[in-house]
Amino acid sequence: MPSPATATSPLSSFSLPNSLSIPKFIAEIGCNHRGDIETAKQMMVVAKTCGADIVKFQKRHSRELLTPEQYHAPYENINSYGKTYGEHREFLEFDLETHKKLKTYAEEHGVEYSTSVWDLTSAREMATLQPNLLKVPSACNNHVSMLQVLRDEYEGEVHISVGMSTEEEIETAVDLFQSCPQRVVLYACTSGYPVGFDEVCLLEIVRLIQKYKHTGRVGAIGFSGHHNGIAIDSIATVLGASFIERHFTLDRAWKGSDHAASLEPSGFSRLTRDIKHLEQAWTFKAKELLPIELPQREKLKFRPR
Fold first, then answer.
1. How many CA atoms lie within 13 A of 240 on its CB side?
2. Which of 46, 115, 142, 268 could make an SS bond with 263 (beta carbons 3.0 to 4.6 A apart)?
3. Chain Cα centroid distance, residue 84
4. What is the DSSP string of 100-153?
5. 143-202 pLDDT, tens per residue?
6. How many other C-beta atoms can be found within 10 angstroms of the C-beta atom of residue 170?
7. What CA–CA distance (Å, rounded) separates 3 from 16?
């Protein structure tokens, strides 16, 4: 049975670009701040120095998002900040006033603030801060009421990850924004923490571009990576991703479930550096012999006798 990508032949009309555009880099801080605002502030500044254009948090109202059974489920493990899953989530949650302070702090330090929203209340609260973009995580991209709120009560870009989603769910989400498609960015994503390289499925970027961007149904396509390392993020750029999002932490050994699938500052710095170098290197030779080659040619080139 052919894969969806093979069946629709997205590569049939794909060609390598003659030039590359550097994507925007998103440092997904999420809940890696461990519930501490000073750590969150430090992470924003460090992420900026590592090349991040955008720092992104998460906003949940756990009692709205979770069922009573989920909220009160025992959650005592090495990554837990509470005896139940609800207590754990509440410990890591910042209120609206704290998010206002974080947004101001980010702007003072020259980095853009954003957040993922997981429920109706969070979407409405974060919309009041008027960030340039709000993110819908893969887990909530089928929350139609929340998507409608972001469409109708918020004016910025709506970025939507499509991990763990059926094609029908993606279609529904995109169709909801048919009156303002330029506001939507879809992210190729595989939902796992971390994801094996054989499960990253980079060519989904091409498929989404062909199906949604080139047809004018969305404004851009991004890549949200949950893999280890940074080797494949440059390829996402070549394939056409306009945003590269990676989870970010100051220490992968910290307590919490997302740290293991996150990049530390050294890794995030190398990722942004390498993609910028790739953009510089993505050229044809301007002439047969480049100036840098001339001394080497004079010194080393074989001379027929």
1. 23
2. 268
3. 29
4. HHHHHHHHHTT-EEEEEE-SHHHHHHHHTT--SEEEE-GGGTT-HHHHHHHHHS
5. 999 999 999 999 999 999 999 999 999 999 999 999 999 999 999 999 998 899 999 999
6. 18
7. 23
